[in-house]
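Methods — Computational structure assignment.
A single polypeptide chain was analysed. Its primary sequence is given first, followed by the predicted tertiary structure written as structure tokens.
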Amino acid sequence: MIQGDEVKPFSVKNKCFSELDADTAGKLITVASDIALVLADAKAGVIRDVAFGSNDLADEVADAWIGKPWSETVTVESRPKVDALLRDSAGPDAPRWRMVNHKSGAGTDVPILYAAVKVEKSGEVIAFGRSMRPMATLQQQLVSAQQSMEREFLRLRQTEARHRLLFQLSSEAVLIVDASTRKILEANPAAGVLLGTGAKDLLGRTFPDGFDAAGTDALQSLLAAVRATGRTDGLAVRAAGGDREFWATASLFREERASFFLIRLAAAGAGANDPASPRRESKVIEIVASAPEGFIVTDLDGRILFSNRAFLDLAQLATEEQARNEPLERWLGRPGVDFNLLTAQLREHGSLRLFATQLRGEFGSTVDVEICAVSVVDGDEPCLGFTIRDVGQRVTFDRQVARDKPRSVDQLTELVGRVPLKDLVRESTDMIEKLCIEAALEITGDNRASAAEILGLSRQSLYAKLRRYGLGELTPADEQLE
């Protein structure tokens, strides 16, 4: 047992160790150390034998050590320490532990803590080694963790400095309010200017302060709504004197275990002509929400972020919450086809006009629609915008016209996906029939009798088709024949 530099030997060593044989002594030495060296003498320090407590350590450092001087198995800076260990092993003082680095085939040094003891009878020296690799690894991890913490701390300080600078220089009045006490914790200079006092004078006041009775009640209701739902629209309030009007918005955020309000104030007259002003933004949202055509905003994956009342009616939904975070493809056209076509066009061109498809209602109804879309990839939250127009009545009228008048090839191609195949086949047949009649009339110089003969039709059948397709005028004699 070691106490300071003093070694306290076993009190009954003659009884305990007098009967030890060589095998037992070797086992004790191996168990007591990670590596044990048996050296021929204390002068040359030639290694006669080696024992390892673990195979990993043996594979890492053992490389034909037997027969070599101990000093040749260590790094250059460790050789004086080996000489000191050999020299001190024969002294009367307690053995001193020294750190020695061994050479490794892997290219990294292996640190071993050694103490050497001389065997009096044989003159050999036994060096007991404890591997410091776990300690070195732990120290390296500690250093790496400390460096990582210092880098993260520096990054946070830089981020805080930038945010603090932005907070101070912002032209928008901003207040940070404790959600539980309603005390103003921070206020930027713009808030002090807007409220007619210094920013420091606002700290510690209870919010709302400095507004008329109606404004105070409205702001308290605003904060209660924000705390309950996390968001709400802004509102207009007046100062206590009644001469100034503000547009106030609030949002809730958490920091550690506390909640705070971030309150923004803007003079009601400021930015009135700015499309991005809070009042104008609110009006735009109100108009879009009440528009007669469906309007949807989704993320880049097609999940709905906003939908107006018209879309909810088309999709047979009761509330916006039923649509939020749901994929638009759930209601749109052919599953796995139409939405992929939409997004492919948006990725390539950025916008899309008059995409014809169908919208499926929640209860099974379908309606023909046209979609215009735009991709907004700039900004903090990239999104996709869709307007959806119900064209069911127009498509019905077009189909009625199609029964009476064939279309061109291009028009028929555009109808693929919008009109059933049997209707397309019928329209294609009518178009081909009309073209053949026109060609026969052109070949025969508008001789209808010859045209009927070329086409293999009776004159009555040809006149009926001429009337159907509106090709030329029929004489009274022709009509009588028909």
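Note: The radius of gyration is 46 Å.
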